[in-house]
């Protein structure tokens, strides 16, 4: 037993601390036994909600990217004029960027929902989203690598299945 005020070791039957004179047991309920909590969450279970929120943020950023490129695509029809390649290739390339960003956003939202709800398919969706996100620096690359490291560690599959809701 230790003193609550100064931390000095005390014998069990002593009422006052020999060092500071504080009364033993003041401020500590009598039901306290000193046992630690036996339920502990794994690293994966603690970090999944954070990763789910990061995937939502990434999905919003990808949606904003798609909207900005779509806006630029409509404006570029007035800027790009002439017989060169930009007249036909510019809108085509920007259209693919919009489609890719929307696909990444949908996949990110799907991964976030699957992880947050702890669905069995959520881990697979997050791994797929992470692979596609690696191609979008800087935030996508960082989030993709972090997700892959977290979900592909040694026993992550078993831990996720234990905590998953069917």
Q: What is the helix tally?
A: 5
The proportion of residues in beta strands is: under 5%
Q: What can be said about the biggest beta sheet?
A: none
What is the H/E order? HHHHH
Which bin fits the share of residues in helices? 55-70%
Domain count: 2
| Terminal Cα span | 46 Å
Which residues sit in consecutive blocks of at least 5 with pLDDT less than 50? 26-30
User: What would you call the shape?
Assistant: elongated
The secondary-structure class comes to mainly alpha
Radius of gyration: 28 Å
* Number of strand elements: 0
**Average pLDDT metric:** 83
Characterization of this structure:
The protein is mainly alpha-helical and 166 residues long. The protein has two domains: 1-35, no CATH class; 43-163. Helix content is 62%, strand content 0%. The chain is built from five helices and no strands. It has helices at 43-79, 86-116, 120-133, 139-151, 156-163. Helix 1 (43-79) runs antiparallel to helix 2 (86-116) and helix 3 runs antiparallel to helix 4 (139-151). The longest helix has 37 residues, at 43-79. It starts with 42 loop residues before the first helix and ends with a helix. 20% of the residues are buried.
């Amino acid at each position: 037993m230790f003193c609550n005020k100064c931390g000095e070791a005390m014998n069990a039957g002593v009422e006052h601390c020999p060092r500071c004179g504080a009364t033993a047991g003041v401020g500590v309920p009598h039901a306290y036994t000193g046992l630690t909590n036996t339920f502990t969450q794994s690293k994966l279970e603690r970090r999944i909600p954070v990763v789910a929120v990061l995937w939502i943020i990434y999905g919003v950023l990808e949606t904003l990217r798609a909207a900005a490129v779509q806006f630029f695509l409509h404006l570029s029809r007035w800027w790009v004029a002439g017989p060169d390649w930009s007249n036909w290739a510019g809108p085509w390339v920007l259209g693919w960027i919009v489609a890719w960003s929307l696909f990444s956003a949908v996949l990110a939202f799907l991964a976030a929902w699957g992880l947050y709800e702890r669905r069995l398919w959520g881990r697979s969706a997050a791994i797929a989203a992470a692979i596609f996100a690696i191609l979008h620096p800087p935030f996508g690359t960082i989030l993709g690598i972090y997700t892959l490291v977290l979900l592909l560690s040694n026993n992550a599959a078993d831990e996720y299945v234990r905590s998953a809701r069917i």
